[in-house]
C-alpha cells in the first residue's frame, strides 16, 4: 500500500499506474447524500487516520463512523486490506453540539512480548460545546472532559521519539487542545494511565455490572494566549532551552540595558499559533510558571449494564428515548478552571494575511503554514523566521516525510560507525489543481509530482504510539505510516514513500539515473513478454544491482535471462578494457554458464527417448538379500502409503525455476561450481531437479553425470543431493523399487568414477570418506526403508569398487577383506532393526484411542539415547510394553546372557509375576551352578570349577540370596494380592508363535515356603563364607534331613528339619557366625576411620552384615544374645569403641558382657603399664601404688590378644565407666572394677 516518488517532477502521469497501490475501504454507511455529490461531501467532514493505518474516523456534525482494517478476499482469490465499518452512531450528548475535531491515538502495549504493534486505539473527539470525549474503537465512551466552554478548534498529539543525536532533549508526550481563547495541554503519561484504567473499568462493568471506580484526575495546563486577534491552529513544539547568547538577547530586548540575566537558561515550552494579528505567533511558557490543574473526569460508564454503544446506536437509528432516562443521565457541568495568561513573545505581522493551518515537522525545527492568499510558508522555528514560500496553493494540505538513509555500503564500512542520516520532505496537496507534490527540505527541488483527484484529503498524523519510552521501545519496530491520501471517489487510501537518495542531488544525479533504469527494468520484467532485442534497454545499467534484480525476477523466462545477460556481456566486451568492470564481467560469465547448465539438464530430462541403463552384474543376488526384509518393507510401505495434505508449492514434482537454480549455485574464481545449501527444502528441490528423472529411468544417467562433471560441481555435493532426493521420495521409491534400486546403483558407480570422489591413495583396509558420507546420511535420516535400500545398494557398490582396486593392485582371486565392508555390515543390520521399530510405531492405534503423529526413529536417535522414542512406543503399545512385562523379559534375557558368561553380575527385578519368573530362573539356570558351588566348597573350597572366579562367585551367591528372598516375599503376598492378568493389544490377537515368557511365568505352580527358606539359609551362609574368606563346610552345618532337602524342586514338599538341633551342630553354626562377625569388624576397621563415617551399602563393609548374622542365628537356633555380646567385644577389641557402645544397647545379659569387657579392660591397662614401649616414671610409680590384688591380676593379663592395644586412655576410662554401670554392686568383680577406674583416672590425669 504505497507509492514511491519519482525523480522526474515534470512527468507526473508516468508512474501513476505503476506506483499507486489501492487499498479499498467501505464508506457506504458514511455517505448520506446523493452519489453524484460523492466528491465534495468529504470536505465537510472531520477525518482522522491512525498512524498505524488500522482505524479511520469520519465525523459530520453529531454523527461518526469508525472504520477498521480487515483482510478480505476478492472474487479472484486475492487478499487485500480494506477499511470496513465497525461502528457508527451519534457522538453528541449536549444539545446543539457537533464534532469539530478528531484524532486517533494508538496506545502501546505494556506486555514484554510486544514488538511495536498498538494494544488498542483511542478516538479523541472535540465538540463545539467545549467537551473532549475519549472513545474505544467500538464507540464505547471512556471519559469526557469540559476544559473550556468554547468550541474545540484543533486536537493535536505528540508522542515519544528516539533522539537521533546526543544532547537532544527527549520531549514528553502530551495532548494539546486549542480553543479560540485558550490552549490546554494534557500530560501524556497521565492521559495514558487514565485511559487504560477507564478501559479496564468499562470491561469489568460490562462483564459483571459492578460500580465503576473513578479514575485518577487528568493533569493539564491551561494557557490564555494573549496579544493575538484570532487563532485557528497551533503546534506544540516541545520543551527547549535557549543558549546563553539568545538568553542575553531576549533579556536585553525585554528588560532593556539594565536587565539581569539568570545563570542557567530556563526550560520553556514553545507554542506556535497561526491566525490573524499577527499572522503567526510564538509563545514561550517557562516550566514551573504554572502549576498543573487536576480535572474532574466525567465518567461515561453507568453502574448498571447500560452500553454507551447501544445508546448511541439507538439515537442513530431514530429509536424513541425515554425522557426520564435522559433527565436522569444528565449531570451538572463540571467546574471550568481559569486559564493562566501567556503573552506572545514575537510574531510574523501581516495585517492582510490570515493563517489557516500549521503542520510541524518530525524534527520539531520546521513547520509549514498555509494562508488565505494561497501561499505555503516554511518557518524556521528555532530562529522564528520564514525561510521559504510557495505560491499558488490555495486550500493546500500539508504533511511531512522523514526518510532514513539506506545503509547499504556504509553499514559494512570498517570506519567508525556514524549515525544514520535522515532526509526531510514536505508533501503539499493542492486540491484545486488536483496535484500532489513532494519537496526536499530546506531549499531542495521538487522531487515528485502526481496527478490526483480534486476532492482528496491528505492525512498526516504527526505522531506515533502513546505510552512508549526509551526503555520499552528497545527492539521495537513501529509500523506507522507518515502521509496518506484518501480519495473519496474511488475509496482508495494511498501512502507516500520517497527514496532517500532524492534528497542528495537533482534529477541529473547518477544514482537517480540508475534508479530510473531499474524501474524500467522492473516494468519490463512485469510485462512477461520480453524479446531478445529488449536487452539493449539495460546496456547502460552497468551495476550488480541491476543484473541481480533481473536474474531474481520470478516471472522472467530462461530465454529472456540468457539473452539479456549475453547482451550485457557483449556490451562489456565492446568497451575499452580499462573501463570494463572486471567483477561485473565475471558475474555475466558465471551466470551464462549456470543458465546453460540449467538448459542442458532440462533438455536431458525432457528427451523423449532416453538411454536405458544396462543391467549391472554386481547386483546379481540382490533379490535374495532383499528377501530377508521384504515382508517388513511391504508392511512399512502399506503403513506409509496413506494420503496426506500438502501445499502445491511444497510438492517435489513442482518445477525448479531458473531463478531458484541460480540462487543455489555460485561460480568460484577457479571456474568450478559450488552449491549453497540455503534451506533443506531448496536443497531437496535442486536434488529432485538433477536426479529424479535418472532414478525413474527416464533420463540418461551417464549423460547427466557427464554434464554435471564437466560443469565442475563437486562429486561430494552431487552425492548429497542424490541421497536427499532418494530419502525425500521414499514412497515413490518403494512403489517402483525394482527400477529405482538399479538406477541408484548405476548413479553411485557413475559418481564414484568422477575425479575427486575416491582418492587414489585410499587404502581399502581403511574407512573411505566417500562411502562414509553415505553411511552418515543413512544413520541420521528418519526414512528407514529408503535408508536401508540405499545402504544395501551402496554396500554392493563399495564392494565392487574395493574388488576393482584389489584386482588392479594384487591381481589375486582372493576376496579383499576391508574395514569399509565391515562398517557396512553393521550399518545394514542397524537399519534393519530401525525399520522394524519404525514399522511398529506406524501401526495405527485401536479405535477410540488417542491419536497423533507417529514418532520417527533413526540410528542416531537410538544411539544418542532414544528416551522419547521408547516413550512413544510404550504409548502406542501400553499393554505389551507395560513395566511388568518389560521387567519380566529384561530379567529373563539378562539371565540368559549371564548363563553364557557367568563372570557378569546377575541382577533380578520385579515383573508381572515375580514368583513365576523367579521360579523359572532358579530351576532353569541358577540351581545347577548353585549346587555345584555348594558341593565344591564342601570339599575343597574351590570355585574355579564352577566356571567363575572368586569375585564373580561372590556376586553370584549374593544374587542367589536376592532371588530366594524375592521368592519368599512373593509367596507371602500371594493371598493378599490377586493374580495378575496378561492382556495384549488387538494387533497381536491373530499372531502365531510360542508362548511368551510372561505366559509361562503365570502358569508356574506355587513354591513351598519352608523349602525356599531352607535354600535361603544355605545361600546366605555361602555368601558370608565367600565374602569374608571363611573356611567352612556349608553342608556340614545341617543335619541329614536338611542335606536331603537341598537342590530339590521348590514347588515340591520335602521333609524338613524340625525340633531342637544337636548341640554340637549348633556349636558349629555359632562358631561360624562368630567368625563372620569378626571378619566384618576387621573389614570395617580400614573404612571407618572416624566414628561418624557412614558405611557403604554394598560389599564386605556394608552395615547390614551384623543384622544378617543375627537373623541367620535365629533361623539356625543360635542364641542371638551370644552373637551380640561377641560382636560388642570384637568391636572393643578392634578399638571401635563408639560403634561398640551402639551395639551394646541391644545386649540382654549385661552381667556376662560386663565380665567379658572387664578382662578386655585389664588387657588394655596391662599393655599401657607393663608392655608399652613408652613407659613413663608416673606409670611405674602408679604400678607400685596399686593394690596387690589388682597388680597381680593385671600381670596375669595377656595383651597380645588385643588387635588394637594402642587405645587412647579416654576411651578406656569411658569403657570402665560403662562397666561400673553394668555390674551390680554385689558382683564378685565389682571392687576390681572400682580399682580399675581409679587407676585409669590417675593415668588420664597425669597424662
UniProtKB/TrEMBL annotation:
Belongs to the Rab3-GAP regulatory subunit family. One of its GO terms (cellular component) is cytoplasm. Keywords: Cytoplasm, GTPase activation. Residues 41-459 form the Rab3-GAP regulatory subunit N-terminal domain. It comes from Gouania willdenowi. Its main location: cytoplasm. Pfam families: RAB3GAP2_C (PF14656), RAB3GAP2_N (PF14655). InterPro entries: Rab3GAP2, RAB3GAP2_C, RAB3GAP_N. PANTHER family: RAB3 GTPASE-ACTIVATING PROTEIN NON-CATALYTIC SUBUNIT, RAB3-GAP REGULATORY DOMAIN. This is Rab3 GTPase-activating protein non-catalytic subunit. Residues 717-867, 868-1224 form the Rab3GAP regulatory subunit C-terminal domain. It is found in: Cytoplasm. It comes from the Eukaryota. The gene is rab3gap2. The keyword Cytoplasm applies.
Amino acid at each position: 500500500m504505497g507509492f514511491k516518488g519519482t525523480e522526474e517532477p515534470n512527468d507526473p502521469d508516468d508512474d501513476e499506474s505503476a506506483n499507486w497501490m489501492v487499498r479499498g475501504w467501505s464508506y457506504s454507511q458514511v455517505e448520506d447524500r446523493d452519489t453524484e455529490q460523492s466528491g465534495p461531501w468529504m470536505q465537510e467532514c472531520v477525518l482522522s487516520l491512525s498512524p498505524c493505518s488500522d482505524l479511520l474516523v469520519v465525523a459530520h456534525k453529531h454523527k461518526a463512523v469508525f472504520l477498521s482494517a480487515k483482510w478480505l478476499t476478492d472474487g479472484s482469490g486475492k487478499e487485500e486490506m480494506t477499511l470496513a465499518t465497525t461502528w457508527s452512531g451519534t457522538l453528541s450528548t449536549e444539545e446543539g453540539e457537533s464534532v469539530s475535531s478528531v484524532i486517533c491515538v494508538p496506545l502501546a502495549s505494556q506486555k514484554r512480548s510486544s514488538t511495536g504493534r498498538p494494544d488498542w486505539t483511542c478516538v479523541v473527539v472535540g465538540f463545539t460545546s467545549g467537551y473532549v470525549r475519549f472513545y474505544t474503537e467500538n464507540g464505547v465512551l471512556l471519559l469526557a472532559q469540559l476544559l473550556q466552554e468554547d468550541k474545540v478548534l484543533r486536537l493535536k498529539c505528540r508522542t515519544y521519539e528516539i533522539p537521533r543525536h546526543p544532547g537532544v532533549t527527549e520531549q514528553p508526550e502530551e495532548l494539546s487542545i486549542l480553543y479560540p481563547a485558550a490552549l490546554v495541554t494534557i500530560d501524556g503519561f497521565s492521559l495514558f494511565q487514565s485511559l487504560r484504567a477507564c478501559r479496564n473499568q468499562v470491561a469489568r462493568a460490562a462483564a459483571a455490572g459492578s460500580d465503576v471506580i473513578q479514575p485518577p484526575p487528568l493533569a493539564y495546563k491551561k494557557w490564555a494566549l494573549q496579544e493575538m486577534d484570532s487563532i485557528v491552529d497551533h503546534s506544540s513544539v516541545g520543551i527547549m532551552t535557549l543558549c546563553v547568547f539568545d538568553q542575553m538577547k531576549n533579556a536585553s530586548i525585554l528588560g532593556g540595558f539594565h536587565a539581569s540575566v539568570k545563570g542557567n537558561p530556563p526550560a520553556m515550552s514553545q507554542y506556535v499559533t497561526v491566525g490573524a494579528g499577527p499572522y503567526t505567533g510564538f509563545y514561550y511558557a517557562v516550566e514551573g510558571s504554572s502549576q498543573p490543574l487536576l480535572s474532574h473526569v466525567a465518567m461515561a460508564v453507568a453502574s448498571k449494564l447500560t452500553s454507551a454503544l447501544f445508546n448511541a446506536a439507538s439515537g442513530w437509528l431514530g429509536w424513541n428515548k425515554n425522557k426520564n432516562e435522559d433527565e436522569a443521565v444528565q449531570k451538572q457541568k463540571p467546574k471550568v478552571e481559569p486559564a493562566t495568561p501567556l503573552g506572545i513573545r514575537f510574531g510574523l505581522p501581516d495585517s492582510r494575511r490570515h493563517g489557516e493551518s500549521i503542520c510541524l515537522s518530525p524534527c520539531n525545527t520546521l513547520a509549514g503554514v498555509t494562508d488565505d492568499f494561497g501561499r505555503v510558508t516554511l518557518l524556521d522555528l528555532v530562529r522564528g523566521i520564514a525561510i521559504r514560500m510557495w505560491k499558488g496553493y490555495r486550500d493546500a494540505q500539508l504533511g511531512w516525510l522523514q526518510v532514513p538513509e539506506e545503509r547499504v555500503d556504509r553499514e559494512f564500512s570498517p570506519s567508525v560507525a556514524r549515525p544514520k542520516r535522515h532526509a526531510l520532505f514536505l508533501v503539499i496537496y493542492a486540491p484545486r489543481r488536483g496535484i500532489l507534490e513532494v519537496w526536499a527540505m530546506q531549499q531542495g527541488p521538487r522531487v515528485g509530482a502526481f496527478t490526483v483527484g480534486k476532492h482528496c484529503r491528505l492525512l498526516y498524523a504527526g505522531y506515533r504510539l502513546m505510552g512508549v519510552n526509551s526503555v520499552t521501545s528497545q527492539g521495537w519496530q513501529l509500523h506507522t505510516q507518515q502521509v496518506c491520501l484518501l480519495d473519496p471517489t474511488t475509496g482508495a487510501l494511498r501512502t507516500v514513500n520517497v527514496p532517500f537518495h532524492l534528497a542528495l542531488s537533482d534529477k541529473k544525479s547518477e544514482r537517480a539515473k540508475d534508479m530510473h533504469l531499474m524501474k524500467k527494468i522492473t516494468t519490463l520484467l512485469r510485462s512477461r513478454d520480453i524479446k531478445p532485442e529488449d536487452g539493449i534497454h539495460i546496456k547502460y545499467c552497468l551495476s550488480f544491482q541491476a543484473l541481480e534484480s533481473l536474474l531474481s525476477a520470478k516471472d522472467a523466462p530462461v530465454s529472456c535471462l540468457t539473452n539479456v545477460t549475453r547482451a550485457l556481456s557483449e556490451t562489456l566486451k565492446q568497451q575499452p578494457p580499462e573501463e570494463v568492470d572486471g567483477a561485473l564481467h565475471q558475474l555475466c560469465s558465471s551466470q551464462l554458464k549456470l543458465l546453460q547448465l540449467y538448459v542442458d539438464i532440462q533438455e536431458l530430462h525432457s528427451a523423449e527417448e532416453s538411454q536405458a541403463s544396462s543391467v549391472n552384474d554386481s547386483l546379481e543376488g540382490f533379490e535374495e538379500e532383499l528377501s530377508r526384509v521384504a515382508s517388513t518393507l511391504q508392511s512399512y510401505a502399506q503403513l506409509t502409503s496413506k494420503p496426506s495434505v500438502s501445499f502445491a508449492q511444497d510438492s517435489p514434482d513442482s518445477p525448479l525455476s531458473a531463478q531458484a537454480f541460480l540462487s543455489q549455485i555460485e561460480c568460484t574464481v577457479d571456474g568450478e561450481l559450488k552449491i549453497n545449501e540455503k534451506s533443506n527444502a531448496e536443497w531437496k528441490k535442486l536434488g529432485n531437479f538433477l536426479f529424479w528423472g535418472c532414478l525413474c529411468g527416464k533420463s540418461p544417467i551417464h549423460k547427466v553425470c557427464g554434464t554435471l562433471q564437466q560443469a565442475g560441481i563437486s562429486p561430494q555435493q552431487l552425492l548429497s543431493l542424490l541421497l536427499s532426493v532418494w530419502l525425500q521420495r521414499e514412497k515413490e521409491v518403494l512403489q517402483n523399487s525394482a527400477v529405482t534400486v538399479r538406477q541408484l546403483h548405476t548413479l553411485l558407480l557413475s559418481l564414484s568414477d568422477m575425479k575427486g570422489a575416491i582418492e587414489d591413495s585410499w587404502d581399502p583396509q581403511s574407512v573411505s570418506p566417500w562411502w562414509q558420507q553415505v553411511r552418515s546420511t543413512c544413520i541420521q535420516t528418519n526414512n528407514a526403508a529408503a535408508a536401508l535400500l540405499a545402504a544395501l545398494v551402496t554396500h554392493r557398490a563399495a564392494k565392487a569398487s574395493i574388488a576393482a582396486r584389489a584386482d588392479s593392485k594384487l591381481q589375486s582371486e582372493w576376496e579383499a577383506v576391508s574395514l569399509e565392508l565391515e562398517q557396512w555390515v553393521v550399518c545394514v543390520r542397524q537399519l534393519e532393526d530401525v525399520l522394524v521399530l519404525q514399522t511398529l510405531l506406524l501401526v495405527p492405534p485401536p479405535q477410540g484411542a488417542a491419536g497423533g503423529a507417529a514418532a520417527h526413529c533413526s540410528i542416531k536417535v537410538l544411539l544418542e539415547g532414544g528416551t522419547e522414542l521408547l516413550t512413544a512406543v510404550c504409548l502406542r503399545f501400553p499393554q505389551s510394553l507395560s513395566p511388568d512385562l518389560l521387567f519380566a523379559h529384561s530379567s529373563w534375557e539378562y539371565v540368559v546372557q549371564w548363563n553364557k558368561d557367568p563372570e557378569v553380575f546377575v541382577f533380578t527385578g520385579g515383573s508381572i509375576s515375580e514368583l513365576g519368573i523367579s521360579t523359572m530362573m532358579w530351576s532353569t539356570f541358577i540351581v545347577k551352578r548353585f549346587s555345584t558351588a555348594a558341593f565344591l566348597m564342601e570339599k575343597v573350597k574351590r570355585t574355579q570349577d564352577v566356571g567363575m572366579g572368586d569375585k564373580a562367585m561372590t556376586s553370584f551367591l549374593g544374587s542367589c540370596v536376592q532371588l530366594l528372598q524375592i521368592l519368599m516375599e512373593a509367596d507371602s503376598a500371594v493371598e493378599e494380592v490377586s493374580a495378575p492378568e496378561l492382556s495384549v493389544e488387538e494387533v497381536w490377537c491373530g499372531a502365531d508363535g510360542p508362548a511368551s515368557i510372561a505366559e509361562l511365568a503365570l502358569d508356574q505352580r506355587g513354591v513351598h515356603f519352608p523349602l525356599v527358606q531352607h535354600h535361603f539359609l544355605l545361600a546366605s551362609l555361602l555368601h558370608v563364607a565367600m565374602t569374608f574368606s571363611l573356611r567352612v563346610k556349608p553342608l556340614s552345618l545341617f543335619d541329614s534331613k536338611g542335606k536331603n532337602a537341598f537342590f530339590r524342586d521348590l514347588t515340591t514338599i520335602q521333609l524338613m528339619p524340625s525340633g531342637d538341633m544337636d548341640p554340637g551342630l549348633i556349636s558349629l553354626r555359632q562358631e561360624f557366625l562368630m567368625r563372620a562377625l569378626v571378619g566384618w569388624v576387621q573389614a570395617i576397621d580400614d573404612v571407618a576411620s572416624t566414628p561418624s563415617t557412614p558405611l557403604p551399602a554394598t560389599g564386605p563393609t556394608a552395615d547390614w552384615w551384623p543384622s544378617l548374622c543375627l537373623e541367620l542365628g535365629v533361623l539356625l537356633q543360635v542364641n542371638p544374645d551370644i552373637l551380640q555380646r561377641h560382636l560388642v567385644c570384637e568391636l572393643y577389641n578392634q578399638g571401635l569403641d563408639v560403634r561398640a557402645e551402639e551395639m551394646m544397647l541391644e545386649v540382654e545379659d549385661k552381667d556376662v558382657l560386663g565380665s567379658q569387657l572387664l578382662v578386655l579392660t585389664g588387657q588394655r591397662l596391662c599393655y599401657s603399664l607393663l608392655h608399652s614401649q613408652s613407659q613413663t616414671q608416673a606409670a611405674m610409680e602408679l604400678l607400685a601404688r596399686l593394690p596387690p590384688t589388682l597388680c597381680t591380676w593385671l600381670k596375669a593379663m595377656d595383651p597380645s590378644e588385643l588387635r588394637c592395644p594402642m587405645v587412647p586412655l579416654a576411651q578406656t576410662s569411658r569403657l570402665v565407666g560403662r562397666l561400673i554401670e553394668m555390674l551390680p554392686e554385689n558382683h564378685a568383680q565389682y571392687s576390681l572394677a572400682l580399682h580399675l577406674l581409679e587407676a585409669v583416672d590417675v593415668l588420664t590425669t597425669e597424662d
